[in-house]
Design a protein that fits this description.
This is VOC domain-containing protein. It contains 4 helices and 10 strands. The protein is an alpha+beta fold. It folds into 2 domains: 59 residues, 2,3-Dihydroxybiphenyl 1,2-Dioxygenase, domain 1 (Roll); 75 residues, 2,3-Dihydroxybiphenyl 1,2-Dioxygenase, domain 1. Strands 5, 6, 7, 8, 9 and 10 form a 6-stranded mixed β-sheet that branches. A 4-stranded mixed β-sheet has the order 1-4-3-2. Strand 3 and strand 4 form a beta hairpin. The N and C termini lie far apart (33 Å).
């Protein structure tokens, strides 16, 4: 079985968050979803667990930060090409998110943007040239 990652995010409005993540390409797994949590699947190895604030509090006694005001993580996901970076960012904005809370990056061999979901969690979709990924950016003359 391949190693997987399950990102747990506290959300203020579970229904709104599910709708947002579905609008940007995630699918809800009903087997692991209820009125307190929703399992949102991005790929065979990446899932996001959206948890109500109350349910989140049952997992840790640490203070939950307000992601609209503080950043604890930046969630970077790869995309197939540059246009896919823009497409998911545009979809996020159309679904109620915020575009580019972090500066866009264009290094030729690598391109990235960012968006915040309705709660303020920051995602950074990025594309990198396959050649750069294999050989490093110095080997790429005109990727893109």
């Amino acid at each position: 079985m391949p190693q997987m990652i399950f990102v747990n995010l506290p959300v203020a409005d579970l229904r709104r968050s599910v709708e947002f993540y579905e609008a940007i390409g995630f699918s809800r797994d009903p087997q692991f979803s209820n009125d307190q949590a929703a399992s949102m699947v991005l790929s065979d190895t990446i899932c996001v667990m959206l948890l109500t604030h109350e349910f989140w509090a049952t997992f840790t006694d640490r203070r939950r930060v307000d992601p609209a005001k503080e950043a604890q993580v930046l969630l970077c996901i790869s995309r197939e090409h540059r246009a896919a970076v823009d497409a998911i960012t545009d979809a996020a904005v159309s679904a109620g998110g915020t575009a580019d809370p972090c500066p866009a990056q264009d290094h030729g061999f690598m391109y990235g943007r960012s968006f915040a979901d309705p709660d303020g969690h920051i995602w950074e979709p990025m594309w990198m040239s396959a050649e750069a990924a294999e050989n490093g950016p110095a080997e790429v003359s005109n990727a893109g």
